[in-house]
């Protein structure tokens, strides 16, 4: 039964898994290329508060890392590894090194006290990709004939299914946590304006929109909007199994994430771009192939 569901709704080709690898690793490659690591190296290591396994690293390591030369070395290593993994060269090795380097860099950022869960789902995808045959197609390795003989279709479908379920769980669990912590008070007409204004007054966001200050004027309608988003989050897993409503659910998600920027100064670009796992890349490839034959 499970195999039948997978065959019906999940792309099951090495091409589809390879395209997902290209997008996921490519996003972090773009981030690394445009981020000023030298600015991060200007911060003194004394303000670091290592988190998680970062606590096991000696302070002498951070003293060396938190310099212009140390951060330039880290950025160079990340760029080289992410270029290789995005292009699918030495994929078995490069996807794992990229995962470790991105994890380390994210841990370093969190050690400065700024926590943001936007990138987490993309990192989970990197974990899945690092241990699956994502280089068997749409990669330099496949063009050089360095990949092994193609595996059964399920070997490519199940990783995509797992990533879709992970993304669905992010939304579903978000709704559950809101209801568990705040209960029905989360639907209060004052809850969203207060939260949005709070985020608009601090200085830890990339934008400084003031749309939140318009929300109190329409406070009587906000409980319905919040309830709609809660229901959407709870129903998000349906996008995995039902193609007919998939694009409706994803379309609502796109509008939701776009609106959070002007209203709450919170963006989720990485999470939004992870919607690529729901695209049927096999069908897109077939469409392009047919057009070339015309």
Describe this entry's structure for a reader.
The protein is mainly α. The protein has one domain (10-293). It has helices at residues 2-9, 14-34, 37-41, 59-65, 68-87, 91-110, 120-130, 140-143, 154-182, 191-201, 222-235, 238-241, 243-264, 269-273, 281-293. Helix 2 (14-34) packs across helix 9 (154-182) and helix 9 (154-182) packs antiparallel against helix 11 (222-235). It is flat.
Short description:
With 294 residues, the protein is mostly helical.
List the helices and strands and how they pair.
Elements: H1 2-9, H2 14-34, H3 37-41, H4 59-65, H5 68-87, H6 91-110, H7 120-130, H8 140-143, H9 154-182, H10 191-201, H11 222-235, H12 238-241, H13 243-264, H14 269-273, H15 281-293
Helix pairs in contact: 2-5, 2-7, 2-9, 5-6, 6-7, 7-9, 9-11
């Amino acid at each position: 039964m499970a195999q039948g569901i997978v065959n019906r709704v999940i792309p099951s080709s090495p091409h589809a898994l390879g395209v997902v690898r290209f997008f996921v690793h490519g996003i972090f490659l773009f981030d690394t290329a445009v981020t000023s690591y030298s600015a991060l190296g200007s911060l003194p290591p004394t303000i670091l508060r290592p988190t998680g396994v970062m606590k096991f690293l000696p302070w002498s390591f951070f003293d060396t890392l938190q310099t212009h030369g140390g951060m330039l070395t880290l950025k160079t290593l990340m760029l080289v590894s992410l270029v290789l993994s995005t292009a699918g060269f030495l994929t078995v090795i490069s996807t794992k090194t990229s995962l470790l380097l991105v994890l380390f860099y994210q841990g370093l950022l969190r050690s400065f006290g700024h926590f943001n869960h936007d990138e987490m789902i993309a990192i989970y995808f990197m974990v899945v990709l690092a241990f699956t045959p994502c280089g068997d197609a749409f990669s330099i390795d496949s063009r050089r004939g360095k990949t092994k003989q193609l595996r059964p279709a399920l070997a490519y479908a199940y990783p995509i299914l797992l990533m879709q379920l992970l993304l669905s769980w992010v939304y579903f669990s978000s709704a559950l946590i809101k209801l568990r912590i705040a209960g029905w008070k989360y639907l209060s007409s004052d809850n969203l304006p207060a939260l949005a204004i709070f985020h608009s007054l601090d200085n830890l966001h990339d934008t400084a929109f003031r749309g939140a200050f318009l929300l109190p004027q329409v406070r009587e309608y906000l409980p319905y909007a919040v309830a709609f988003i809660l229901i959407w989050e709870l129903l998000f897993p349906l996008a995995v199994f039902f193609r007919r409503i998939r694009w409706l659910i994803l379309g609502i998600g796109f509008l939701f994430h776009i609106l959070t920027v002007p209203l709450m100064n919170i963006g989720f670009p990485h999470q939004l771009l992870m919607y690529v796992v729901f695209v049927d890349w096999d069908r897109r490839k077939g469409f392009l192939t047919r057009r070339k034959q015309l």
